[in-house]
């Protein structure tokens, strides 16, 4: 009887081993194959809280810490080895040059290590496009950097932060995102830092790349890319912020009917090294402002013609004779992004021909 039982166990043993191997958790070596993604938290609506679950406006931004954000999405652990770091905690309308430099230096330090495959930055949506473009010009790595936010606070019904964060971590850990530049990922869509902009005050699909189009989608737990930017970025740029503790002052003068040079003159008097003129149409210069712009240029201030329109190329020597005025045309960059490029350009040169080259390169 004993020998019969032994025979049955010996016969069944291979099947038991197979069943055990299927039921057992993955060994540590398999878990280590997950990408290593660091989440740098900066605040914003994704970390916001409201008075009730139906509060989607009038909430308090930048209240939830990075560890709570991570714990709220346990699925993150299934797609990456995730670490969190609270680099600062602000509403993004309070973003400034000092925060940008701090963030860029931390991103570069992390990406220089072999133990980091990608970075996700949680951020308020108001200035996501500016932070993204700044990093697109100064990050010194081809590894993925993904900026993510939310349009609804974490306490709201159908808060979009958790799924946005989940998608961003997948994207930051994906080999398909390597070399694509800094990416903005919300609402299941992937946009490039240079061209994306916020287009709606409150809807979930606010981030768009008008005319030029998004880069791809997040679906089936992976990115699907359909195009990429042709402009140089990240490790291929000439900009280096490692030794900088401040950026040159550049201000934006907005064009409108009946404008005068009051704002322009105030910025110049305050020490602006550059002025972005967000003109009407194709960057047109109103007659009352043109002499003041020329005077500012004669004082060494760099003038860049941009447009308030939001789409299209600013034609050099189109609505103004840029060669004679010694102005720079912003190409397709909107005013807020033209400001960022000019700030970085001024850390390298004050030659307008070289700065114009940069606007056509980045």
- State Rg: 25 Å
Order of helices and strands: HHEHEHEHEHEEEEEEEHEHEHEHH
Give the strand order of the largest sheet, numbering strands 1, 2, ... along the chain: 2-1-3-4-5-6-9-10
The appropriate CATH architecture of the largest domain is 3-Layer(aba) Sandwich
| Mass-distribution shape | globular
The helix fraction, in percent, is 25-40%
Mean pLDDT: 93
List the uncertain runs: 1-31
User: Looking at the chains present, what oligomeric state does this protein adopt?
Assistant: single chain
Total E-strand runs: 14
CATH superfamily of the largest domain: L-asparaginase, N-terminal domain
The total count of helices amounts to: 11
Largest sheet: 8 strands, mixed
Strand percentage: 15-25%
Quote the CATH topology of the largest domain: Rossmann fold
CATH class of the largest domain: Alpha Beta
Q: Estimate nothing, just give the exact number of structural domains.
A: 2
Strand-pairing-aware structural class? alpha/beta
Describe the structure.
With 362 residues, this protein is an alpha/beta fold. The chain folds into two domains: 33-236, L-asparaginase, N-terminal domain (Rossmann fold); 250-361, Rossmann fold. The chain has eleven helices and 14 strands. The strands form three sheets. An eight-stranded mixed sheet has the order 2-1-3-4-5-6-9-10, with helices on both faces. The longest helix is centred in the first third of the chain and has 22 residues, at 2-23. It is globular, with a radius of gyration of 25 Å. The N and C termini lie far apart (82 Å). Mean pLDDT is 93; it is low at 1-31.
């Amino acid at each position: 009887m004993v020998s019969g039982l032994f025979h049955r166990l010996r016969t069944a043993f291979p099947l038991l081993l197979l069943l055990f191997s299927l039921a057992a958790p993955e060994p540590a070596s398999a878990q280590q194959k997950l990408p290593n993604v660091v989440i740098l938290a900066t605040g914003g609506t994704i970390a916001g809280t409201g008075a009730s679950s139906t509060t989607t406006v009038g909430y308090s931004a930048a209240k939830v810490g990075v560890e709570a954000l991570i714990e709220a999405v346990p699925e993150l652990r299934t797609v990456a080895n995730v670490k969190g770091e609270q680099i600062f905690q602000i509403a993004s309308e309070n973003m400034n040059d000092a925060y940008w430099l701090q963030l860029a230096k931390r991103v570069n330090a992390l990406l220089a290590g072999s133990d980091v495959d990608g970075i996700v930055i949680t951020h308020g949506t108001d200035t996501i496009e500016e932070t993204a473009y700044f990093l697109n010009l100064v990050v010194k790595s081809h590894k993925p950097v993904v900026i993510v936010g939310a349009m609804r606070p974490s306490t709201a019904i159908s808060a979009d932060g958790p799924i946005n964060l989940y998608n961003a971590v997948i994207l930051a850990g994906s080999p398909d995102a390597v070399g694509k530049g800094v990416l903005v990922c919300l609402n299941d869509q992937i946009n490039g830092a240079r061209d994306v902009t916020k287009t709606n005050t409150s809807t979930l699909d606010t981030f768009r790349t008008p005319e030029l189009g998004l880069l791809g989608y997040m679906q089936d737990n992976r990115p699907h890319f359909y195009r990429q930017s042709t402009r140089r970025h990240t490790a291929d740029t000439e900009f280096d912020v490692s030794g900088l503790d401040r950026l040159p002052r550049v201000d934006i003068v907005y064009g409108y009917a009946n404008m005068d040079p009051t704002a322009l003159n105030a910025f110049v008097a305050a020490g602006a090294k550059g002025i972005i003129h967000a003109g009407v149409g194709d960057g047109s210069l109103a007659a009352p402002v043109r002499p003041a712009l020329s005077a500012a240029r004669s004082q060494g201030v760099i003038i860049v013609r941009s447009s308030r329109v939001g789409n299209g190329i600013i034609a050099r020597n189109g609505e103004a004779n840029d060669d004679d005025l010694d102005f720079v045309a912003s190409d397709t960059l909107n005013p807020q992004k033209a400001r960022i490029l000019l700030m970085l350009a001024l850390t390298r040169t004050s030659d307008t021909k070289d700065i114009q080259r940069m606007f056509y390169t980045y």
